[in-house]
Structure formats: structure tokens, C-alpha cells
Amino acid sequence: MMAVGQGVERVGRAGELRIYLGAAPGVGKTFAMLGEARRRCERGTDVVVGLVETHGRPRTAELLEGLEVLPRREVVRGGNVLTELDVEDVLARRPDVVLVDELAHTNAPGSRHAKRWQDVEEILAAGIDVLSTVNVQHLESLNDVVQRITGVRQRETVPDGFVRRAEQIELVDITPEALRRRLAHGNVYAAEKVDAALANYFQPGNLIALRELALLWVADEVDVALQRYRSDKHIRETWETRERVVVALTGGPESETVLRRAARIAKRAGQADLLAVHVLRGDGLAGAPVGAAARLRTLADDVGASFHTVVGDSGASGVTDSLLEFARGVNATQLVLGTSRRSRLARLFDPGIGARVVQESGSIDVHMVTHDAAGSALRLPTLRSNVPGGRRMLGWVLCVLAPVAATALGVALRGIVGLSTDVVLFFLATVVAALVGGLGPALVAAVLGVLMLNFFLTPPLYSLTIGETENVVTLVAMLLVAVLVALVVDRAARRAEQAARARTEAALLASFARTVLTRADPLPRLLEKVREAFGLRCVALLERGDGAAGWARIAVSGPAECGRPEDAEVDVAVEAGLHLVGTGRSLPAHDRRLLEVVGGQALVALRSQRAAADAVAAQRRAEANETRSGLLSAVGHDLRTPLTSIKASAGSLRDPSLPLSDADRAELAATIEESADRLTGLVDNLLDSSRLAAGAVTPLLEPLGYAEVVARALLGLPGAERIDLDVAEDLPDVCADAGLLERVVANLLDNALRHGDGAAVAVRGSAYADRVELRVVDAGPGVPPRQRDRLFTPFQRLGDRGTGTGLGLSVARGLTEVMGGTLTAEDTPGGGLTVVVSLPAVALRSSGSTAPGSTAH
User: Fold this and answer.
1) What is d(CA 307, CA 343) in angstroms, rounded to the nearest whole number?
2) What is the pTM of this model?
């Protein structure tokens, strides 16, 4: 068995998850889980069995003896009784640890959650530790791979992200031969299933492939955990946990030879990871030929290497530092590079990158590969300086002017001051040139000063002959002073540059962290800041999709031109299956290190964003459940009254013992008809509400007059005699759907009659600016201003205590808005409520704006 700890700290009261992962059924996952449960019980831990499947295996069943087993929840489905994990019982029992077998299981319809891993998620959220099991074929990312290997598609899967959340993942592993023997002895399946299993799913080749998948998946998780630990602890030295070979490529003619040699080294090292890195000089000198990067990337893909590009500071030492920084960052164990193309004469002045890498590599083994181009090039050594370019230019000017000025001053003061004073002036000129320009201008100033001092001011005059020995000491001292001061200046400039970079990096990280912490949706802004800070054309966060879906862009800033990490010029692996990529230019090694930190912040932002989305989805589900419960309660209330009236009236009409007159029978029939109308109106409102929610109402707009619509709405409306109609015939027409507007008016009139305390209801029409308004005015109790918005909320009624559907006004507002109008409520002068329907006048709509379609009733 092999276990990997993910190093995840418990937050609050969240429980810890431990998963036993196997390559196939029968390897002993449940057996190992039960063994751990018994060990914890012996240590005094409160352990219960939520659900464990023994599959008739006697040795597994023996381990259950003595453990507390919670009863399962029974679900009746199609005449069959299914048993599932009882989550409510687990939460009520609240043990320290609960055992939940078969993490990828799909629950029976009607269960608390669709998947068992969702049950486990809720249990963990309650602060209960969970031990569980899963097979590698049930991992979502490997589902299609397993299908191609075994020919069987697994219908039950669990997201990789949930499995990776586990604090411990323990691999339960046995050899394919041992598993087949266990299967043949009847220790896995019943005897009648053994032959079919051995001939199909449990073939040796299938088991070998599944075992390799499980080992590689766990190994990747171990590697991610190790990289996270090294990053958190700021460990830079190499840990030889896995062979990683880094090959340095220049883009020159020797690159193919060096890369192929590195591939052979990696293969002999036991299929080690091979990373090809192309280091570019920051000064742009001696760059690779045009198209070399694309050719090297293709060749790296052919030999199975990942390709990376980093930019080093100018000079050989800068390239060396960047190369070693990259190698240590990826925890490389071996480094392969070609021997220098520079000649032996050039190497006398500068040993070259290879020699520097060997001296500074530390614990990383370095391979120097010879090639045909070795020693064929002659290059002059470069003097590298950290002094800014502007100061260097000024230094080159001063290295000439300062000695000339010192010479002129010495000649002018000849006879007044001695040679010692002249020497001090030339020392001052050399120091000034060194302080301003660095090493190069200092050396020129020193040499020029020595020559001018010797020629113009040192006897014999106007001759380069040195007459006294102490003058030689003076000249040598000037050269040494120039070099030493220049080195001090250069080191100070380097420290200043490093301090400035550190301040910039700290400010950038603080800005990135502030974005992640303060924004509701931080990813787009974070990537935009990264693109601006690093001067990239495009920055994207890519996530590997499930199965054959490839890579998906989670977020992007700039043109969406990078869809795979292989196509990017900057590629930072945030975690397995999640990469931060960029295009536009390659980055120096120190910028890549900063980008890795940003990648961690992007991961935090992504998880926060998804957690917020899950919370919103959960809230919506809760609201939907609340709405559904309210609907059932409300419909039950509104149905009960008319149904009771219909049943009572129909029962009276059918009772032969009741002496009923014709008037009584007519009244009972009218009661039945009225109650049926109420039921019809309720059903119509429910249907309209569902259509509005689904966006399925398409109005057929045409010119209409309020007067004719109100007249049709009054037909058959109980209490219509209490309505005072005041709608002028000459009002402008509105653009509306006749059927929908009639439904709106009918609902408003019915609402006013019901809540108007028996008083008359006025209906008035008026035109205002580009709108035509219809007002339904009642003299009832009115509605307080703060509660008016609730009038148009489904399942709300004025004065109710949660009873009745209250859909009339909600449907009326929805239908009005579909037609392009508004429905509002306001106070009636003297008391009461006025509901206003406002629709655009027909003159404002062109003939082409009428939406085609049919009225939905």
C-alpha cells in the first residue's frame, strides 16, 4: 500500500477524508478500510459504519463484527426495496469517524443527493471524518481511458477534484496475477461470475494497464503535494525523489544532438521526466535563428519532452543563473547542455556558460554533450555591468573629460602645486568615472589618466618614459583604485536593482492579493493585472476537461489565442490539470517564479469563485424548494374551498331524501358553476406563471382600445355590477395582445373586488405623454408603501398568513411586461389601492416592431 498526505489543513469543523484507491474490484480496499477502522476503535475513537458492501466476502464480513453499524435507509423503487446511506442518521449520531464504501455510487431516485460523494461532502461539512473507497476506473478524468482499455464504460464517476481534497489517499495494490488468483478462488465474485470476469474485464493486460493508471495518478498527486510543500517552505535545493532531466537548448545547430542525447539519458534513468528549456539572453544579443523556437518545440514533442522558454539577464552569468534557477525550480536531478561553440582562445578570457553551470550546479548532475560545432566560434568576452544605461553613457563621457580636466588643471598650476597634488587630481578623476559609469569607464579613465600624468606632469615631461620607481607604484595604484571602486559601484547598483525588484514584486503581489480578496469575481481582473504587469499579449487560465474534452479556458485577458499549454510562450502549472499560460513574449526566470505565486492566487480565486457559485446554486435550490412548498400549500388551500363547495352542492343534488325546490337546485348548480370557474382561473394562473418563468409567452401585438378590453373582461365576472367604468372611447389605442391584456384586466378587477371591502371599484383610462394608462381603483384597506412590492410576488396575498396562491397580480405583472408595459401600485386618495397598467401608445410603434407569434393562454 502507498499513502499520500495532501497537507490540507482543517478549516473550522470540517471533517477529514481518507480514501482507499484501487486499480480494480477485489484488491482489498474495503478490507484495508475496515482494518483501519478497527485500529481506531482500539485507540478509543468513536467509529461507526455508515455503509459497507461486503459482496458476500466472508473475510470482509468478519472485520465488521464488533463495529457499530448504522441502519440503512430503505427506498422502494419499482417494487424493489433499495438500501442507501442514511445521511440524517449519521448527522444525528455524530461519530468521530464514519465508514462510507463505494464513493462513486449513484443513489436511488428520491435520495437526499444524487451521488454518494455528495453525501460524504455533507458529512465532512458537519465535522465528521470519513473513510471511503474508490476504484481508478471511477475517476472522472480517466473514464474514457478505462473504456478504451477494457471496452466497458463506467456510468458511475466521482470528480477528481473531490478525491484530491482528501487529506490522505492510500493506494491498495496487488499484482494482476494475485488478483486473478483471488478471483479464481471465489474471494471476489460468486462462482457463477468468475469465468466471465476472468475472460473479460480481469484479463492480465487490462489489470496491468489499470494498475499503471492507479500508480501514475497517485504519483502525480504525490508530486503535487511535494511541490506545494517545497514552495511553502521555500526549499530551493534539489530533492532526488524522481529523476528529472533538464536539457538546455540554444537554438543553434547543436540543439538537436543535445536534445536527443538528453532523451536517451532520461530513458536510461527509468522513464524520467524530460524538460527542454530554451534560455534567451535579456540583452537580445546572440539570439537563436529565426524559427528555431518552433523547430525545437516540435522536436521536444517528438522525444516526449515538455518545452519551456525563459529569459536570462544579459551576459553569460545571467544565462547561467536563469538556467540553474529553472532547474532548481522544477526539482531537476540532471542537467544536460552542449559544450561551448567558443574557441579555446575565447575560453581563456571567459570560461563560458558550461563551466559556470558545472561550478554552481550544486547537487544537480551536469552532462556536457560534445557536438560538431564545439570550439568553432570565436567570441570576445563581455564585460557585464549592472549600472543603468544612462549612467554608463555619462561615465564614458567623464572617462575622457575628467582626465583631460585634471591634466589641464595640473599644467595650469605647475610651479604652485607638486606632483602629489596632481596624482590626487587624477585619482579623483578615476573615482568620478568609476562612480558614475562602472568598470569600463573606470578602466579607461585610469589608463588615460596614467598616460596623461606620465606625459604632461611627470619628469621627464612630454615623454612616456618613467623616471622614478615611485611613479610606477602611483600608476599601478590608480588602476587598482579604478577597479576596486568600479566593483563597489557595480555591486551597489546590483543591490539597488535587486531591492527595486523586490519592492516591485511585493507591490505586485499585494495588488494581486487585494484583487483576490476584495472582488466578487476576481479572476478576470487578476489576469488583466498579470497581463499588464508582465507585458504579455494574452493571459489565460486553462483547465483540462473531462475525457476527450481537452483544455478549457476558465478565464482569459486579451485575445483568446491560446487554447493549450503547448501553444503558450509562458506556461506555469498551478496544479495537476490547471495551467496559467501567456503569449506575447518569454519571461525571465525570476518573473516565472513570481508568476508561480500568482498562479497560487489564481487557484484561490478560482476556488472562491466556484464556492460562491455553488453557494448561489444552493440558495437557488433552497428558494426553489421553498417556492415549491409554498405552491403546494397554496394550491391545496385554494383548491380545497371550491372543491368542498362543488362536492357539497353535488351531494345535495344527488341526495333523494332532501326536498329541494327548483330555486334551491338552481342555486346549488350556480354554486357548482362558480366554484368550477374559480378552479379554472386558478389553473390558468398556474399555467401562465410557469410559462412566464420559462419565457414561453410570445405576445401577438396589435392596436387595441382599453374600452373594448375592459368590456370583455367584465363578462362573467362575479360582482361586475360594483364596477364604475370610466374609459373614454377616444383614448389612443395601445399596442398589446388582446387575450393577454384581457387576462391582466380580469385579474386586476377580481383582486379589487375581493379586497375592496364591498365598495365600488372604479376603472379609469387616461393618456399621458407617450403612454396610455388604465387605473383600477378600490376603496379597501390599502397597502403600506413598504409592502407594495410583495403584492406582485407569487404566493403572497394582502392580509394572508401564508395561505392562497396569490398568483393573480404576479401573473398580471408578468403578462404586462411581456407586452412592453408596466404594472405598478399606488395609494388611492382617501384610502385604498390603485393599480396602474401603462402601455405604449400605438402611434409610437412601427409596423415592423410587432412581434410575430401566437398568444399563449
Assistant:
1) 29
2) 0.38
